[in-house]
């Protein structure tokens, strides 16, 4: 399924074959939490900005509209009208970050819906069933995302349970993929490495899950409060214990700099809400750093957000117009910023792939970081 | 400038030639109050849904971003990136409906900005200057929009002042159109007929302003609280006193039924916030009546909002998906509804033009009203 095309140092350039098409890696997945990109961006728009993979959230779709509704409507691809790959997370992270009162047991997690307070149970089997109903291309294993900081003892117990949950996920997905009314019978499963900032726990866990021959492996529980240096250190120490011939996914990360550092350490897949969230706050990513479009200096600026940018927004509208839309609280301004920012991330990944292919990733990374550090 | 192609009863089918292209009438102008259609719809989207004329508000753009800013940026067409006709209202209606404490004097109106409470003065000359700065295709004369109900005495005094203001508007626009740095030196001016529901005042005023040889004539101060029957009656009695060889514009109206009734009485131009406002409240216009997309019956409905509709939304997305977006409070749902509703209005005007051309407007109107009355 994954073909390693070339390496430049530890940086990997690969191709991941799925039933919904080939993903060129490294890749940044565009986050559409509730089956929609926030900021009024449609799947038709995603087709124009180089999006390869859309990511939706199992927990959100389970509570609304309900995964059974999505299944009856033919699965997430048909529901959203998106024919390329979709990755669904397992719901684990949201259960631990969003949901109300929760109890972790060996069988799974009891918690309250953040929408209506209703009591819900989710364990490995439920997460796999929901993701099978959603019929995503890639499902994520159900794990515990441990708090940061956590004691060594808590972490070890949590990781051991996550391993036992992974075994149950594998078994359940195999069963689901063989059922006659399963929409995507070739759904793939990525396991998730945990262990916080305890490198030895991470490494042992990576070795353990690597034996399970999954379709891909993720690093979870990072970017949850530790420093960037701690995160880079953990990635550097753990990735060598994950299979080279499988994709590696760093969950929920991050800034352009974070992505460049992680690619250098062998990561293939990324996702993050930054481009859409920052867009909704009036910030645009550019090769000269982040711009705050609300700034008065753009009042009469008729240039595009980024000169030379090929995104549909920069090809048409000016800084002055976008600033006005933001000031006037017109939704259109947010849509424009989110569109540009997602394009910026997708385009950066394309540049990264090109740089690795040409074995000049280090030079590319240096130049990109220096450019972004200039400030606007 | 206006060419009457044919008539079907009183209904007019015309062509209005402007520096920004030809407008086929009857026409519905799409309202982009603050130089943006509410609901994250861009001018690029308008190109795809049959929009002929965009309408922006002088008062809103004067307070933000400021008409001088728009002028420095090359005018509203360049600012919004819209090359077809733009009509700007005079600011009068907003001064009387939105602004704080106001004082009406012979010279104009003193009022407070609804944004920052700042004291502003606007009279006929100021309104013309602002609209000249915005460089719209068609400017509206500065009038008083009298309260409803108003006494006969108040109304007569108000209408007389509106006539004197119109004379000042004509003079000022002539001056502005001759200035070397005016962006649109061919800016056109529409006068506004007032008189509330006093038919005789309306008629006298219509006769008076018809002598002034303006580019078009509007009926203002309707749909402000009087019944539909009163409004239709006033239109029917007044339009015959406005020039047949000029376009007639019914300001701020209305529902599809209102438009059909007014077209039958000789109106050419319309504008209304209903399609975008109702869209933002989850309502879609269809040929079978209005749909509330939040209704539970659409939860599993994979049909488009309107079967056979050629709008970009109905061509792609289902009722079930749009309902989910609305329930999840995703902006994308609002964008889809506004897009569809504007398309519905624009398409209805196309049908109206076709029906008048083929002298079957009455049959068309009857069938359309019956269809919409079915309910969904």
UniProtKB/TrEMBL annotation, chains A, B:
SUPFAM superfamilies: tRNA-guanine transglycosylase (SSF51713). Keywords: Glycosyltransferase, Metal-binding, Queuosine biosynthesis, Transferase, tRNA processing, Zinc. Pathway: tRNA modification; tRNA-queuosine biosynthesis. Its EC number is 2.4.2.29. Its cofactor is Zn(2+). The active site is at residues 89, 271. GO terms for biological process: tRNA queuosine(34) biosynthetic process. Residues 252-258 are annotated as: RNA binding. It catalyses: 7-aminomethyl-7-carbaguanine + guanosine(34) in tRNA = 7-aminomethyl-7-carbaguanosine(34) in tRNA + guanine. Gene3D superfamilies: Queuine tRNA-ribosyltransferase-like. Catalyzes the base-exchange of a guanine (G) residue with the queuine precursor 7-aminomethyl-7-deazaguanine (PreQ1) at position 34 (anticodon wobble position) in tRNAs with GU(N) anticodons (tRNA-Asp, -Asn, -His and -Tyr). Catalysis occurs through a double-displacement mechanism. The nucleophile active site attacks the C1' of nucleotide 34 to detach the guanine base from the RNA, forming a covalent enzyme-RNA intermediate. The proton acceptor active site deprotonates the incoming PreQ1, allowing a nucleophilic attack on the C1' of the ribose to form the product. NCBIfam families: Q_tRNA_tgt (TIGR00430), tgt_general (TIGR00449). PANTHER family: QUEUINE TRNA-RIBOSYLTRANSFERASE. Belongs to the queuine tRNA-ribosyltransferase family. This is Queuine tRNA-ribosyltransferase. The gene is tgt.
């Amino acid at each position: 399924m994954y073909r390693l095309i070339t390496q430049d140092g530890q940086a990997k350039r690969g191709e991941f074959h799925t039933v919904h098409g080939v993903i060129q890696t490294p890749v940044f997945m565009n986050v559409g939490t509730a089956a929609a990109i926030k900021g009024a961006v449609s799947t038709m728009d995603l087709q124009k900005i180089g999006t390869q993979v859309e990511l939706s959230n199992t927990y959100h779709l389970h509570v609304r509209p309900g995964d059974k509704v999505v299944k009856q409507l033919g699965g997430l691809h048909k529901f959203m009208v998106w024919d390329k790959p979709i990755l669904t997370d397992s719901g684990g992270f949201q259960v631990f970050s969003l949901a109300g009162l929760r109890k972790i047991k060996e069988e799974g997690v009891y918690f309250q819906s953040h929408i209506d307070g209703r009591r819900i149970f989710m364990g490995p089997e439920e997460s796999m069933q929901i993701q099978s109903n959603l019929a995503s291309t890639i499902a994520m294993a159900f794990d515990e995302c441990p708090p940061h900081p956590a004691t060594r003892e808590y972490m070890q117990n949590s990781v051991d349970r996550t391993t036992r949950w992974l075994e149950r996920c594998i078994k359940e997905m195999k069963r689901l993929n063989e059922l006659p009314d399963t929409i995507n019978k070739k759904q793939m499963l990525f396991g998730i490495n945990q262990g916080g900032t305890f490198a030895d726990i991470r490494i042992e866990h990576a070795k353990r899950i690597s034996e399970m021959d999954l379709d891909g492996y993720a690093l979870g529980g990072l970017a949850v409060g530790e420093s960037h240096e701690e995160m880079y250190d953990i990635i550097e120490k753990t990735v060598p214990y994950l299979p080279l011939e499988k994709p590696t996914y760093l969950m929920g990360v991050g800034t352009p700099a974070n992505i460049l550092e992680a690619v250098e350490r062998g990561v293939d897949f990324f996702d993050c809400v930054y481009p859409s969230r920052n867009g909704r706050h009036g910030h645009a990513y550019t090769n000269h750093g982040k711009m705050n479009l609300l700034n008065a200096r753009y009042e009469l600026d008729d240039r595009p957000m980024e000169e030379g940018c090929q995104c549909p927004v920069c090809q048409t509208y000016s800084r002055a117009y976008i600033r006005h839309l933001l000031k006037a609280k017109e939704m259109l301004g947010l849509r424009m910023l989110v569109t540009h920012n997602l394009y910026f991330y997708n385009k950066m990944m394309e540049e990264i792939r090109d740089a690795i292919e040409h074995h000049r990733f280090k030079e590319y990374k240096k130049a990109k970081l220096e450019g972004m550090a200039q400030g606007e």
